[in-house]
Amino acid sequence: MLKVDLGELGVRRSSAQVTDHYAAADLEGKRVLCVCNFEPKRIARVKSEVLVTGAHDEEGRVVFASFDHPVPNGTSLM
C-alpha cells in the first residue's frame, strides 16, 4: 500500500504494486502523477483512494509517471 500526500486534499492510500523498481525508502518524497477523483475501490485488503499512474517497461514492471521539476503536492494537471 502507498500513501500519497495530495496537499490540501490530504493523504490518500493506493493499492499500486510497484515493488519491482521501487523500495519503500525510494518512495518517500517521490512526486507522481495520480488521479484522485475516482470513487474509492477495495482491492484485496486495501481501500484504494487514489490511482497512481505509470507505464510498463519492456519486462512488464511498473514505472511511475512523474514530473521533471518539483511542483506542490496536490497540484492539478493542466
Automatic annotation (TrEMBL):
<dbReference type="Pfam" id="PF01588">
    <property type="entry name" value="tRNA_bind"/>
</dbReference>
<keyword id="KW-0820">tRNA-binding</keyword>
<dbReference type="GO" id="GO:0000049">
    <property type="term" value="F:tRNA binding"/>
</dbReference>
<protein>
    <submittedName>
        <fullName>tRNA-binding protein</fullName>
    </submittedName>
</protein>
<keyword id="KW-0694">RNA-binding</keyword>
<dbReference type="InterPro" id="IPR002547">
    <property type="entry name" value="tRNA-bd_dom"/>
</dbReference>
<dbReference type="InterPro" id="IPR012340">
    <property type="entry name" value="NA-bd_OB-fold"/>
</dbReference>
<feature type="domain" description="TRNA-binding">
    <location>
        <begin position="1"/>
        <end position="78"/>
    </location>
</feature>
